[in-house]
Amino acid sequence: MKTLRALGLSLLLATTALAVTAHEVDPKIAEAAFAASDRPAAQVERDAVRKAEVAFILHHVKSGDRVLDMGAGQGYMSYLLSSAVGPTGTVYVQNPQGWVDYYKMAGALDEMKAKRPNVQVVVAPFTAIPAPLKSYDVIVSSMIYHDTYNEKGQDALAMNKALFGQLKSGGLYIIVDHHAPAGSGTTATNTTHRIDKKIVIDDLNKAGFLLVDDEDILSHPEDKRDLNVFDPAVRGKTDRFVLVFKKP
């Protein structure tokens, strides 16, 4: 598979053909998603450090898709996915109740629902996300997989098996997260908010998913993987992995 090296949005979308993508992506779709006038200003400010990640994810989403945005927070990725799937698609914006309460997300989520009719808000634990009426086409976990290990009652195998059952055959599960030192397992998930990539791959393989792409488009070799991801020295510049899994 070709590895996406350039971090520029236009180059990512215009020059790369991904082997796991079965459709052509119009670069204007991503451009329109970023340019949407109803996006909160605080989210627009984050585009500078997340465009490469978003461009990659939107490359795997098409109009009409049903997409689960796991641990979506106040919806940074959800707004962009909403634009990409269009009025015939649906974005399921999931957060645990504890996150909604602690981070006071309810107002932002209500605002997004009012602005975007193709958004459905799902408040549920990671291990008990309700099944959609129709299977998901794509599941997105953007820099929160490590957090699932910090939730009370976490069972990675149960969570991923449930998601496996909710994803259509041939559907994709895209995971972006912060590298922890190799061999560190899950020891950093609640300290520096990182996770060993091998743990993620093993988790998904045990649940039946196949790894079809392992990208280094968010590589930052200068990151020593030892600082908290919110430390100003590395925030927005952490060494991150991008994994794409497929349900056979």
Please explain how this structure is put together.
With about 250 residues, this protein is of the alpha/beta class. The chain has one domain (about 10-245): Rossmann fold (3-Layer(aba) Sandwich). It is built from 10 helices and 7 strands. It has helices spanning about 10-15, 25-35, 40-45, 45-60, 75-85, 95-100, 105-115, 145-150, 155-165, 195-205, and strands at about 65-70, 90-95, 120-125, 135-140, 165-180, 210-215, 240-245. Strands 3-2-1-4-5-7-6 form a 7-stranded mixed sheet, sandwiched between helices. The chain is globular and about 45 Å long. The protein starts with 8 loop residues before the first helix and ends with a strand. About 45% of the residues are buried. It comes from Asticcacaulis aquaticus. Pfam families: Methyltransf_31 (PF13847). InterPro entries: Methyltranfer_dom, S-AdoMet-dep_MeTrfase_Alr7345, SAM-dependent_MTases_sf. This is Methyltransferase domain-containing protein.
